[in-house]
Write a structure and sequence with these properties.
heterodimer, A: 85 residues, alpha+beta, 5-stranded mixed β-sheet, 27% strand, B: alpha+beta, Aldehyde Oxidoreductase, domain 3, 4-stranded antiparallel β-sheet
Chain lengths: 85, 161
């Protein structure tokens, strides 16, 4: 399936782009699977996702856990813990 | 109930925004405002500026979800949240939360609740500029603890905070 991915803050810097639309293999079921798969796509992705436990995710602009299913997602975002306010 | 959420690059006048909340109404008994300001130093070192990155669309939606929750939990007459993004200089305002209620407790609690959640759930990231270069500010455990105390026992948490 084809999906829009967005990256923010140091995740964006490490990957080197703010967003991309990529084809995701059908066996990737959850956000956690997706992070593991992305981490295998090259050096910059490996660097971005090397400590995947600290990275937060959102599906269609709502926070989700790593075990969330990605099946119906239009947009998935990855970012560090937030530091607003 | 009037609720306003505003994300903007430009500086704002906190007193003016807060005054608009109570203007022309006689039912308000309490106005609480919190203004977050850009400090001129971090860990003892002077900073040149902060740059706030945000997730357009989600930032507004996430703040609005928390404003809705605040309105459900406390008897508020009005809420305004202003959050800036982009480059912010020391001394400038970053964020404003203003709440109005008939009695002070609701306004105090709701303002604190909103700030605690903004810190840990609203998709903003601060980068600090110092003489030695730029770096991302790390999230603080103390902010997670502050947000956690508002978790309603009857509600499931949908995310990993």
């Amino acid at each position: 399936m084809s999906m829009k991915l967005r990256y923010f803050a140091w995740v964006r810097e490490r990957i080197g782009k703010p967003e991309e639309t990529i084809e995701i293999p059908p066996d990737i079921a959850t956000v956690g699977d997706l992070m593991t798969w992305l981490g295998s796509r090259g050096e910059e992705y490996a660097y971005a996702f090397k400590d995947a436990r600290v990275i937060r995710a959102a599906i269609d602009q709502r926070h989700v856990r790593a075990d969330a299913a990605i099946k119906d997602a239009r947009e998935i975002a990855f970012f560090p813990p937030m530091t607003g306010g | 109930m009037t609720a306003t959420v505003c994300l903007q690059r430009e500086p704002f006048d906190a007193a003016l925004v807060a005054a608009e909340l109570t203007h022309g109404r006689s039912d308000a008994g309490a106005l609480v405002t919190f203004t977050g300001i850009c400090r001129g130093e971090e860990n003892g070192e002077p900073i040149a500026a902060l740059t706030l990155e945000h997730y357009p669309g989600m930032a507004e939606a996430e703040i609005e979800r928390h404003v809705v929750e605040a309105v459900e939990r406390w008897p508020l007459l009005g809420v305004t949240v202003v959050h800036r993004y982009g480059r912010i200089l020391p001394g400038e305002n970053i964020v404003l939360v203003a709440t109005v209620s008939s009695h002070r407790e609701a306004a105090f609690s709701a303002a604190e609740f909103l700030m605690d959640y903004l810190k840990t759930r609203a998709p903003f990231w601060k980068q600090v500029e110092k003489a030695g270069g730029k770096s991302w500010i790390e999230a603080k455990t103390i902010d997670d603890v502050a947000a956690e105390r508002w978790a309603a026992p009857h509600r499931g948490r949908e995310a990993a905070e």
